[in-house]
Target: Electron transfer flavoprotein subunit beta
Amino acid sequence: MKVLVAVKRVVDYNVKVRVKADNSGVDLANVKMSMNPFCEIAVEEAVRLKEKGVASEIVVVTIGPNTAQEQLRTALALGADRAILVESADELNSLAVAKLLKAVVEKEQPQLVILGKQAIDSDNNQTGQMLGALTGYAQGTFASKVEVAGDKVNVTREIDGGLQTVALNLPAIVTTDLRLNEPRYASLPNIMKAKKKPLDVVTPDALGVSTASTVKTLKVEAPAARSAGIKVKSVAELVEKLKNEAKVI
Ligand code: AMP
Model:
């Protein structure tokens, strides 16, 4: 079974992001970039499926600038077999990304496509669902357990009230939640080996996809600075403030 994993290059989760002076977006100059954490979980799940003998090949794909090859090499070091970069320097919205992923799906014909549930830069949480709509594949989002059984995949989903398990006909799309697994670290020998694994670079044009945006970002603002808290001397004072100042009791 071939598994396709979509990974996104994002600002590292440890970085405190700064908004550009002209409010047009987040300042990416000299900022550490990494693989989106939910995509690391997606790669890990694919590698585990291969270790179990369920998956035979893992292809990772990213859509982004040439520098996104770094994240593809990381995925190759974690256990993916080959990688595809759809190179675009533009900031693409989810629909454009989903259309490009659909073109890659048509070319690669994977049985399972694994994506993160959301990218931590824009928190969109929509690419997997859009890909599901465009391909017509069954989708299991927010997965905390994935079990392939014959021509079906059972996906346990984290929903508000608890857990829901759905059986999807393959080919299917799964998006990963935080508790699906704990991603491994790449070992040094595997990082070295990854340098020799195949990495193809294609353009959106070559895939026949127009990436014209349907969404325009008007403004990006940092959250308002929070004012400092105060220390109260007694419970009575706390109650008085909650009642008369905060008016919450
Ligand atoms: P989003 O819908 O933007 O929150 O992203 C959800 C998931 O879609 C990510 O975790 C990735 O698996 C995939 N994805 C989003 N953008 C890209 C991209 N530029 N390249 C590859 N995969 C992406």
Q: What stands out?
A: The domain at 2-244 is CATH 3.40.50.620 (Rossmann fold). The pocket of adenosine monophosphate is lined by residues 6-8, 36, 38-39, 42, 62-64, 94, 97, 115-116, 118-119, 122, 124-128 (CB under 6 Å). The mean pLDDT is 96. The two ends are 58 Å apart (CA to CA).
